[in-house]
Amino acid sequence: MEEGDKIEKGRVCVTGGTGFFASWLIKRLLEDGFSVNATIRSNEEHKYFTELSGASERLTIFEADLDKPDSFDAAIQGCTGVFHVAYPIAIEYAEKHGLDFVSIIPTWIHGPFVCPFLPGSVSASMAMIIGHQDEYSFKYLWRTPFVHTDDLARAHIFLFESPEAKGRYICNAVEITIDKLAECLSATYPEYPIPTTAE
Ligand SMILES: NC(=O)c1ccc[n+]([C@@H]2O[C@H](COP(=O)([O-])OP(=O)(O)OC[C@H]3O[C@@H](n4cnc5c(N)ncnc54)[C@H](OP(=O)(O)O)[C@@H]3O)[C@@H](O)[C@H]2O)c1
């Protein structure tokens, strides 16, 4: 679809925009036709945002820090919804303040990313390739529920667009053991010497 063919879906705010998941959510929202106000904590390098499809027309960056709640006012102004990714909000707070609130609890997030750093959860799942034995130990990956980055982004948008959505949702795809992960990585990357059992 060409940029001119996009169906305008209104403006939303995403907090913690520089993060692993939030930056992917921003990409998905822009691709779906939303205008996005993204908050970042400081005026750091955020070139990767401006390179996202639709960003030059529909993405605005705001500086805001949760330590200064008022700093979010400008970013939220005029938005039909807020994806508050930077920090979890307790349901009790939303109820007390009359917010139309839906909570999504993701399991371990894996998959593509647009942020300029290797996210911790992706690093752990790729540790058998990278050779970081401490990360693929039983501690993290003995039996772990996984969700794909883009499935999680789509789940956020789906619930945002569902008026009947209410309360708390868990977003998960599969539960995988370290042996299964090794098997999957070996099949996908046969060129790497991947252990077949947890050591
Ligand atoms: N990754 C996973 O597998 C996973 C699994 C379950 C739940 N979660 C939850 O999902 C959310 C996003 O995860 P993620 O992996 O994308 O995290 P992340 O990459 O660490 O991103 C967190 C974002 O929140 C921002 N932030 C932190 N403190 C802030 C503050 N005081 N004011 C404003 N912004 C602040 C960070 O800004 P800076 O860049 O300035 O630090 C960053 O942009 C987190 O709440 C995390 O606990 C993640």
UniProtKB/TrEMBL annotation:
Q: Which UniProt keywords apply?
A: NADP, Oxidoreductase
Transmembrane segment boundaries: none
A Pfam family: NmrA
Could you tell me one molecular function GO term of this UniProt entry?
A: oxidoreductase activity
Residues forming coiled coils: none
Database matches in PANTHER family: CINNAMOYL-COA REDUCTASE 16 (PTHR10366:SF563), NAD DEPENDENT EPIMERASE/DEHYDRATASE (PTHR10366)
**Protein name according to UniProt:** NAD-dependent epimerase/dehydratase domain-containing protein
